[in-house]
Amino acid sequence: MSGNPWRQVQQALLYMIGDVASVNPSVALDVVIYNDEASLLQYAGSYQEAVNRVKADGMTSFAAAFSCIKECLKTEIQGTPVSKTVVVFMTDGADTCNRGDDINRSVKSWKEALARLGHEAIVHVVGFSAQHDYNFLGRLRNTGTTAGLFRYTEPSDGTEALKAKLQELFDFVALSAGREVEMLMKLEGEDRFYTPDGSKQTVTIKGEVVVEEQEEGNTEGAAAASSAEGQKRLLVQADTWVIMADPVTLPQVSITLRMQVAGQDLELPCLVKEMSRELVKEPADKVLWAVRVLERNADSLSVRLSKAITSDGDGGVFDQLEKRLTRLQERVTNVQVYGHKGINKELRRALLEHLKELQGKIDRMHSLVADFRRAQGSSVSLLAKANDLRFSTQFTKSRRQRIMDKRVSKNVSAVQEAAAQLSMLRVDQSETANLSQNALDFFHCVLSQYNVKELLEDPDDNSDVLGFGLAIRRSEHALDEPTLLYIHGVSGSLVSRTSILEALEHKIQLSGHLSAHGGFTFDPDAELGVATVGQAREPINSWLPLYVTKSHWDRVKLLMAPSLGYLCTLDPLGFDPKQQDVLLMVLGNMISRLDQDTTGQHQLRLLFAFHRTCAAMVADFNMAEAVEERVQNFCSSIQGRTKDVLVNLYTLIGSVVCLPRETLKDIFGENGEKLGSFWVSFVAEAYRRAAGQMFKDKSDNVVDGLVDLLLHGEGQGVIQGGASQTEAPLSDPTDALLARCRQVASCSSTQPIKVDAPVFDPAAGVTAPEVKVKTSRKVDRAMEIWAKDKLGCPLSKKDDVTAAKKVVTRWLDFGPQSVGAQMEGEKEAKKDDYNPELVTQSMLNTVAQLQGRLTPQLAALPSCIAFVNHWVSSQYCFSEVDRNSGLAPETWISGVKEAIKMMYSTLAEDEGAGPEEMSLGTNVDEGEEDVESDDDYEDDDDDTDGKAQKRKTRMSSKKRARFHLPSLLGLVAPGNDPALLSRALVCQVLCYCSNSKARQAAKTGLMLDLGQLDAAASPAVLTLQQLHCSLLQRREHVLQAMIERSIKQRANYCMVEASTVWAFIGYLMNTHKERDDGFIDLIKMLTSPDRQQPIPLVAEKVRILVTGQYEGKAVLSYGNVWLPERKYSQALAKVVGEEAWGEIEVEVRSNVSVHVYRESDIPNRHGHCNSNPYIPNELRKRLGMPLRTLQNTRKGKKRR
Asked: Compositional bias (Acidic residues) spans (predicted)?
C-alpha cells in the first residue's frame, strides 16, 4: 500500500488516536505498523508527527504482525487489570512473505496466545482494497474468544468511508462494556416477532451486556448483583419488534440467554418478572416513533428486495414489494417535522438527518428495482438494442432520478406485453400489395434502402417501422415537461427505426453518447449531437414514426412508448403519457416551418403523413377529450393560456389541427368565424411570454413608466402632469405605426433596440402642503382629559369629558380641511378626460420599439395562421389519405400552397412592400442569429457535424420576411383598429408578464381577454382605460398619503411641545395607530440637531414611543415595542442620555414576548430565531451575558 490509499489510512489512524482512544482514559491504545517486519508505533510526543513519518513500503508478513501484537499484550497486562482486549487488524492484501503452512501455524499460535489472556479477546478485521484474502480474514476474525467483525472498503471510497468503518468498530468496542450474548425469544399465542424474513414466533437476537448503577433506595436484588465497585447490576439490552394480535394485552414471552464461556456453550433460561407498556402521547414522540417505524420498514424491505432479486423468484412477489416501496416513499414524504410542539431545533436537525439517510436508502431501492426491471426488459426483443443505447446519467436532482426509476419499473411489464402483441401481429398482404409506386418511392428508408412494403414483410424483424429524423436538444426539464424539447431541425429524410438505432449505436461506439445525441444540456450554444445525416446532409439525432398504413400503424402503436421514452429521456423505459404531447408539439413546429417559396410537395407530404399519425394517436390513445379541453380552455379564458397550463404554444397548434371536424365547428364556428379571436389570443400570449423573459427582473415602476408612455404619450403621462395636449394626434395611426415598425426593424440589425421611458414615480411633481403649526393650552388640556377617559384612568371632578371630546373633535377636523384645500387644485388637474383612441407619434414609437424587442418568432405565425385557417375551413378527411396509400392528395398539397401564398401576399400588401424589399427576419429556430459571414460558406466535408444544414437554414431564413404586429392583428382581426389593438396588447403584456400576475389579474377581472372581438365594448379600449385608471389610482394614493403625513406633522409638533405626559398620549392616540412614516417624522423631530430649546419630558416621551405603553396600558401599536435601527438608537440615546436610554433598552429587550420569530425556529437571514434571539452587546453587558463576536455572527448566518 502506498500513495493515496496510505494517506487515507494515515488520516484514519489520526482519527483513531486523537478522536477515539485519547478521550477514553480506560482504553489503552497501541498501534503496530508492519510490512515484512513489525514494530510498535511510538507517539509519546506528538502522535500526528509519528503517524506522518510512517512510510508504506516493503512486503507483507502477517506472522511478524502477530508476534509483535503478542509482545504488546504481554507488556500491557503486567500489573494492570484488563477486562477486554480488542484487536483491529487492517490489511490491503495477502501475506507475501510466508507460505500457507507457515501462516496457519502463526494463526494457531496467535489464537492460543489470545486464549491464554484470561479475559475476553475480540479480533476485528478491515480489508482495504480488492486484493485481500477474504477467506483468511474471515478465519482471522474468529481467532478471539468472541467472534469479531469484518469490514471492507475500497481506496476509491475515500478517507471518510474508511474512517466510518473504523468509527463503527470503535463504537462497538466502546459499547461492549460487558459482552455480546444471544437471546432466544419465543412468544406465546398469536403474537409474532417482526423480522425482515416475515413474522416468526421464535427469534434469536443479539444483546449487549451492560453495567448499570443501582438507583438509591432500590436495593431489591442488589445483593446478588453487587460488586466491589458498589451497587450495580448487569443488564442485557436488545431491540426487537412484536406484531400484537391484541394490542390491549401484553405479549407473553420466554427468554433464554446463550453465550460461550471457556469454550463451553451455555444456555440460561430467564424468568420474565415484569413487562410494561409506554404509550406515545406527545406530538414530538409520535414523530420520532413514526421515523423509527419507517426505518424498520425500509430495512426490512431492502432485505426482501435483495432476496427477491437474487433468487429471481415469483414476479408477483416482486410486484408487491414494489408497491410497498411506493407506499414507503409516500409515508416518508408526508412526515412533518415542523409545527409540532416539543421538537426543538436540535431534535429537528437530527430528524432531518435521519430522514435524509432514509431517503437515500429508498433511492437506492428505487435504483435497484429499476435495474432489475431493465434487466428483465433486456430479454425483450423490442428493447434489446434500445437498452444498449440507453444514456446512463445521474440527474442533478434526486427527485428526477426517482421519477425515472419509477417509470422504468412501471413500464417494463407494459413493454413486455407490447412485445408479445407485436409477435402476434400479421401484415395484411392485400394492403401492402395495393400500395402505389408513388407511395413506395416516398415511404423509403434512405439508410437501409427498404421501402415500407419491404419493412413490413421482412420475416426477420417484426419490430421495424418507418419514420422520419429530427435534430433536437433536450435538458433535464424534459423529464417533467416533455414539450420543452428544442427542435433544432426537422429532416425531410425518411428512416426506419432499426436504421436509426444502428446509426446511434455506431456513433456512440465511435465518439460517445454526447456526440451521438447530445445528452442533457442547458446550454443552447453547446455542439449539437449528430448520429447521422439525411439526403440533404441535414443533422439527425432522433426519430419519430409515421402512420402510412393500418398494418404499419398497428406496429407503431406498440412501439410508440419506447420510442417516445428514448426521444425524451434517452431511455426506452422512460416513457410517460405526457410525452404523447411531443408529437403534437412537433407537428405545430413543422407547420410553422412552411414557407411560400421553399415549401414543396415532399415537405407537405411528410407534414400530412405526420398529421395523420398525430390524429390517429389522439383517436386511438384516448387523447381526444384532453386535447379538446386544452383548446377550449385556451379560447375561453386567460387562465387556460399561461405557461404552467400550456408549456409550448406549438402544442396548441398541433392540438387544433388534430381535433375532429365536429369539434372544430363547435369551437371555431361553422366556417371558422371565431378563428380571429383565437389568433389574437394566441399572439397576445406569445407576446406576454416574450415580455416575461425581458421584464422578469424589472421593477414595477419601470414597467409602469412604459405603460404611462403608451397610454398618454411623451410629456403627457400621469407623472408629467400635463393638462393640455401638446403633441398633435395622428389621423392614420396604423400606417404610421407600420412605418415606424419597419424603421425600427431596419435599425435593429446594426444596433440593439433601446426603449427610453421615464421610471414611473407617482409622487413626481407633487409638493407636500404647508402646515401651520401652533400649540394651544386649551387643546392640550382637552387631550389630557380625553386620554385619561379613553384608558379608564381616574379623572377629577373639574374634568369635563364631554367638552374635552368636542375640542378634540374640532382639532381633528381642522387639519384635513386646511390641508385638503391646498391639495384640491392638484386633484382638479387630474380630472379624468382620457381618450384611449387618441394616438400620438410618441405612443407609436414606443409600441414599435417594444414590439421589436418582444417579437416572439412572428416570422413563424403567418404559416401557422394560413395552415390552421385552411384546415378548419376545409372538409379534408384522413380517409382520403388512407385510400391514397398514405399520401396526401394533390388537392391538399395545392390547397395549402395557395393558402400560404395568399397569406404572405396579403401581409406584404399590408406592409406596403414586396417580399424582396422587406426587412429580413429571424428563422423559426430560437437562438439562430440572422447574420451572414464568409465563414458560413466554407467548404466542409464532414457529413456528421450538421454545419451544412446550418448554412442551409440560415440561407433559407433570408427568404422569410419580418412581419410586424399591426400587420398580423389587422389580418386576423379585420374591422378592428390595429394600432389601438397593438397598444392595448403591448400594455397588457407588460403589466401581466408573469404567469402568477396574469392568473390573478384574470381572476379579478383586471386583465381582459383581447380576443373577445365580438364583445359589445372593445376590450382594447377597456384595457387602456383600466390601465389609465390604475395609474391615476396610484397617483391619488400618493396624494392621500401626503395629506395624511402633513396632518400628522401638525400633531407631531404638538406632541413635541406638550408639557404633560397625558397631553402627549392624547395627541399620540388620536394621530398614530401604527409606526408608519408619520411616526418616523416624529422621531426625527425629537432627535433633530437643529432644535435649540429643550423638549419637555423627552425621556418619558421616548419611553412611551419605544415601548408603546404607559403605566401598563397600550397607547401605540397595540402595546408592541419598537426595536429601532442603530441610527435611531444612537440619536435617541444622545437626546435622553446614555443612562436613560440604557434603562429603556433593557426594559424593551428583556421582554421576551415582544418579538416572536417564526414558529419553526428556522433562523432568519441574520441567523436569529426564538432559541437564538438578537440581543445587542450593550444589553448583554447590562444583563451579564456573553458578548457576540464577529465570528459568532458569521457562524449564526452560516448555520442557515
From this structure: 925-944
DSSP notation for 1013-1041: TTSSS-HHHHHHHHHHHHHHHHHHHHHHH
Contact criterion met (CB below 8 Å) for 1002 and 685 = no
| CA nearest neighbour of 647 among 525, 480, 490 | 480
CA pair distance 1018, 680, nearest whole angstrom: 13
pLDDT, tens digit (0-9, with 9 covering 90-100), for 331-382? 888 888 777 777 777 777 778 888 888 888 888 788 777 777 766 665 555 5
C-alpha span between 1172 and 1193 (Å, rounded): 11
Residue type, 217: G
3-state secondary structure (DSSP) of residue 1132: helix
How is residue 925 written as a grid cell?
Answer: 429556430
Q: Interior CA angle at 566 toward 494 and 410, to 5°? A: 140
DSSP 8-state symbol, 18? I
Q: Cα–chain-centroid distance for residue 545?
A: 33
3-state secondary structure of 66: helix
929: left (phi over 0), alpha (psi -120 to 50) or beta: beta
The phi and psi torsions of 435 (rounded to 5 degrees) equal -65, 135
d(CA 1047, CA 814): 9
Check if the beta carbon of residue 375 is closer than 8 Å to that of residue 411: no
Which tens digit of pLDDT belongs to each residue from 598-615? 889 999 999 999 999 999
Q: Using an 8 Å Cβ cutoff, are 533 and 411 in contact?
A: no
For residues 497 and 447, what is the distance between their CA atoms, to the nearest angstrom? 10
Cα distance between residue 29 and residue 44, in whole Å: 12
What is the DSSP code string of 38-54?
EEEPP-SS-HHHHHHH-
- Ramachandran region, residue 672 (left: φ > 0; alpha: ψ -120 to 50; beta: rest): left
In which element (H, E) is residue 488 found?
strand 486-496
- The answer to whether 575 and 473 have CB atoms below 8 angstroms apart is no
CB atoms within 10 A of CB 784: 21
Q: Give pLDDT tens digits for 809-858.
A: 888 887 666 555 545 554 544 445 778 888 888 777 777 777 766 655 66
Tally of CB atoms within 10 A around 136: 18
Q: What is the pTM of this model?
A: 0.65
Radius of gyration (Cα) for the chain, nearest Å? 42
Rounded to 5 degrees, what angle do the CA atoms 103, 152, 157 make? 135
Q: Provide long-range contacts, Cβ within 8 A and 24+ apart, for 423-428.
A: 423/462, 425/462, 425/551, 425/554, 425/555, 425/558, 427/456, 427/457, 427/551, 428/549, 428/550, 428/551
DSSP, residue by residue, 954-1021: HHHHTTSBP--HHHHHHHHSTTS-HHHHHHHHHHHHHHT-SHHHHHHHHHHT-S--TT-TTSSS-HHH
C-alpha to C-alpha distance for 410 and 519, rounded to whole angstroms = 23
Q: How many CB atoms lie within 10 A of CB 932?
A: 13
Distances (CA, A) of 408 to 92, 221, 813: 39, 61, 75
d(C-alpha 807, C-alpha 791), whole Å: 18
Report d(CA 582, CA 486) in Å as an integer: 11
Write down the residue that cell numbers 390641508 correspond to: 819
Q: Does residue 1093 come out as left (phi exceeding 0), alpha (psi in the -120 to 50 range) or beta? A: beta
The number of residues in the chain equals 1200
- Which domains are seen in the chain, by residue range? 4-175 (3.40.50.410), 180-215+225-270 (no CATH), 284-377 (1.20.58), 416-627 (no CATH), 1049-1198 (no CATH)
Q: Decide: 546 and 610 in contact? Cβ < 8 Å.
A: yes
Nearest-angstrom CA–CA distance, 160 and 127 = 15
Question: What is the DSSP code (8-state) at residue 508?
Answer: H
* 1085 Rama sector, left if φ>0, alpha if ψ -120 to 50, beta otherwise: alpha
CA–CA dist 656, 868 (Å, integer):
8
Terminal Cα distance for the chain, rounded:
41
